[in-house]
Amino acid sequence: MTKKLVLIIILALLSKMNFAQELPTIRATSKIIDVRLGNKFYKSSGFISPEKKPDILSTSNLGEKVTLYTDVDSISVTIEPTTKFDFVILLNDTIKAYAQIKYKPSYLQILQTAAKYNFNDNRAIPKFEYQEKSDPNLIILRKEFKLDSIAGTGGEELKIINLLHWVHNLIPHNGNGENPAIKNALSMIKECKRDNRGLNCRGLASVLNECYLSLGIKSRFVTCMPKDTIFSDCHVINTVYLEGKKKWVWIDPTNDAYVMDEKGELLGIQEVRERLLTNKPLILNPDANWNHKSSVTKEDYLYNYMAKNLYRFQCILRSEYNSETWAKGKQFTYVELLPLDAFQQKPDKSINKNENAGTTSTNYKTNNPTLFWQTP
After folding, report:
1. CB under 8 Å to 310, separation ≥6 — which residues?
2. DSSP string, 84-97
3. Which residues are registered as beta bridge partners of 242?
4. How many angstroms separate the CA atoms of 131 and 218, rounded?
5. What is the C-alpha separation between 270 and 250, in angstroms, rounded?
6. Domain-by-domain residue ranges, the chain?
7. What pLDDT score was predicted for residue 115?
């Protein structure tokens, strides 16, 4: 190693040491901290954690002043898009806890960067299909659970909402559990009743989807996903077609939820997404809830949780009874809608074979929402 290279390394190390020494420092004798974000004050909202290097406090509130308080000191920074403010908390004059206040975009802000689609994308995707209510299994489902009576004799919107409430009340949501191996409404309803168990969001949407199909109502279950291609959480809801108004509407059996505009008109998934992007009013039905244990609020559900999960969408091509039960020789076909800045735009069509299960899965991609939300 040359003397010149050794000197460069030493200078770099000294620079880092000086930088660490020059970090703003505040003192503390207690690990408990308070935080003020703009006009909101959060008492005892965190703990000093020397083991984290650094311990990061993230906020999406651009332009707001963030102040962190220890029991004897405080430090503040105004949040900008480039904010990454490093400092030290000196605990009991001996322990250094490295900390950082940084800007991190909210899920809504991330979604608002994904507004663009390509309405001229003409990559070939097959037409979505919907099983007829004359299918023998759908007839059994309709009769066994008296779904005509549950739907009632009102208009189609009321029927759709009545069935939503029925499934929500019938089967609890269990987001931590796997769905049964046999994934059709008849089997899953009976298994949940027998074993006193629930279903995850995909299972609930699948059950409700088949109930709608059994009454001749066009419906799909939609996997709503975040921007990241690797994720730990997504959400599955239903898109249900109103024949009278020639439009799709948002129906969520997990949260007994539907969404309206300021005039009380039911909105579809794409409409809700557009209104989030353009800050137009959204109204959540007031009785939306999770398992009748907690209310669902518009702010948390739409502007946070679903803003995360409205980045891209996937639907099975043929909406039918028992559509996702694995069986040897079965073929699954899905279509995915992506904004232009989403990851993994290619390939246009992919085919994956599961040799162990004997199944084949085909996935199409499009940037064209008109094709994805096509009229039945």
Report:
1. 111, 224, 269, 272, 273, 276
2. EEEEEEEETTTEEE
3. 247
4. 8
5. 9
6. 24-104, 110-372
7. 76
Q: Are 191 and 214 in contact (CB under 8 A)?
A: no
Cα separation, 105 vs 102, whole angstroms? 10
Taking CA atoms, 77 is separated from 86, 102, 104, 340, in Å, by 10, 9, 14, 35
201-214 vs 136-144: helix crossing angle, rounded to 10:
100
Question: What does the alpha-carbon distance between residue 91 and residue 34 come to, in Å, rounded to a whole number?
Answer: 15
Indicate the burial class of 356 (C-beta count within 10 angstroms; 0-12, 13-18, 19 or more).
Answer: exposed
**175 CB-near residues (< 8 Å, 6+ apart):** 200, 201
Predicted confidence band at 21 (pLDDT cuts at 50, 70, 90)? low
Rounded to the nearest 10 degrees, what angle do helices 201-214 and 156-170 cross at? 140
The H or E element that residue 238 is part of is strand 235-242
* 268: phi then psi, degrees, rounded to nearest 5: -90, 175
- Asked whether 118 and 340 are in contact (CB, 8 A), the reply is yes
Mean pLDDT of 111-117: 89
Cα–Cα distance, 270 to 94 (Å, whole number): 55
Q: Once rounded to an integer, what is the mean pLDDT over residues 113-131?
A: 94
**Tokens, residue 6:** 């050794």
250: its two tokens: 């948002």
pLDDT score of 8: 43
Place of tokens 């690990």: 31
Q: Can you give the pLDDT at residue 6?
A: 42
For the record, the structure tokens of 150 come out as 């549950």
Distance in angstroms (rounded) separating the CA atoms of residues 265 and 252: 16
Spatial CB neighbours of 218, under 8 Å, sequence gap ≥ 6: 130, 212, 240, 241, 243, 319, 376
217 Cβ contact partners less than 8 Å away, ≥ 6 residues apart: 156, 159, 160, 240, 241
Q: Which of 318, 358, 352 has the alpha carbon at shortest distance from 335? A: 318
Q: Residue 10 pLDDT > 80, yes or no?
A: no
Residues paired with 35 in a beta bridge = 42, 68
The C-alpha angle with vertex 35 and arms to 34 and 36, in degrees rounded to 5, equals 135
For the beta carbon of residue 137, count every other beta carbon within 10 angstroms. 17
Tokens standing for residue 58: 């993230």
Residues, the chain: 376
Residue entry with tokens 């001229």: 120
